[in-house]
Amino acid sequence: MCMCQSSKYPFIVGRCLFNKQKFYCSKVAGKNKLGLKLGLGIGCPTLIILILSIYVFRRRCKQKYASSNFLRQKTSSDHSSKSDLESSSTACFGLPIFSYAELAEATNNFDDEKELGDGGFGTVYYGKLRDGREVAIKRLYQHNYRRLQQFINEVEILTRLRHKNLVSLYGCTSRRSRELLLVYEFIANGTVADHLHGNLAQSGSLTWPIRMSVAIETASALAYLHASDIIHRDVKTNNILLDDNFCVKVADFGLSRLFPNDVTHISTAPQGTPGYVDPEYHQCYQLTEKSDVYSFGVVLVELISSMPAIDITRHRHEINLANLAINKIQKCAFDELIDPNLGYKSDEEVTRRTTLVAELAFRCLQQEKEKRPSMEEVSEELQRIQSEDYKLENVQEDEHTDSEVPISSLPPPSPPTGDQIALLKNIRLPASPVSVTDKWISQRTTPSASV
């Protein structure tokens, strides 16, 4: 058998013969085509497989190189603020982005002596930026998914809010930063709690007119939040800041939650501060804006009494200030609740207004949320108490005398009577927990709407 060339076929498979001193091929019929078919049938698939193998190998090598290069860049960005995509010219939700290095420098590397306080989600430090601005820097505890979502939520909320009695947000760090930081305006005059029963209480700076303004401005800020579909969730005197002119700045939206417009509550785990938490919240784990109303009722009682929301030195049934206030108001014992240093009994106007504020707090502290007023109603009521409206109403309804009768001769309004007091006297209040984790004794069975 041999392969040779002929005029008809380039190469043929045949039998080699010798004739007249010359070799020639005698073609074996059909075998040349079979060999060609076998060659193509085996060679082509093998070639294709080889090409695909080379392609896959080279692609994997490229992916491995790209992945290692990305990790090197990410590691470098975590340890270097310069590669953190942070600069003052960059904006997140329209806010300036601060580098971690700049904020660490502003707080002396988050020195403990710069610490202003802490909350449920982070610690707040005093800092001074390179441009001379004094700021409060909120440092979230951990850079995990929950904290990242909280960070994004808080930034998004604050960028949409514009109210003179809400603390301003100057900026934040990038979400790619090694830590999540929020930069607020610094309010230098402390909190309402500091002035009521803290290290600034002895100064006597919170006179009754200032306390009345604090109540009005705080109510206005909370009503604005509710109108924006936002629940504060941690209303307390420690979160009400005062500037040098004693104007209110409501702070700490760390527990804020947006709620959808098509639902009436948000079901969630209990959060807040003992002494301020809505008792229905503990029963049903349902959060509404009326929870803020309850907490604000406690703030009102603090303003008129100068007592803290929780005091374990008081009688066990009055450790919680809300319970103490309801008990005193039910008995019309305003003199046992209102701070005499404000001018109660000695100043007629102070006596009248503090009594009216006590009655309003009484309504805010109702056990059932449906019986509490809205924050908008609370805000309007406080403004009426501050204005002359109540004075004119008392003249017309209580005295029914000529307009020439001097207002100064009118006695202070009587304590709440009638249906309002009768209703509250029939309410048996549950024991008051002093811890957020303690449970209130439920007077009714209300299923939780947890999803």
Model description:
- This protein has 451 residues and is an alpha+beta fold.
- It folds into two domains: 91-185, 2-Layer Sandwich (Phosphorylase Kinase, domain 1); 192-425, Transferase(Phosphotransferase) domain 1 (Transferase(Phosphotransferase), domain 1, Orthogonal Bundle), CATH 1.10.510.10.
- 39% of the residues lie in helices and 13% in strands.
- It has helices at 31-79, 100-106, 145-159, 192-197, 208-227, 279-284, 289-305, 321-330, 348-364, 375-386, 389-399, 419-425; strands at 2-4, 12-18, 23-27, 91-92, 95-96, 115-118, 122-128, 134-140, 169-172, 181-185, 230-231, 240-242, 248-250, 257-258, 266-267, 286-287.
- It has a five-stranded antiparallel β-sheet, sandwiched between helices. Strands 1-2-3 form a three-stranded antiparallel β-sheet, with no helix packed on it.
- α9 (348-364) packs antiparallel against α10 (375-386).
- The radius of gyration is 39 Å and the shape is elongated.
- The N and C termini lie far apart (85 Å).
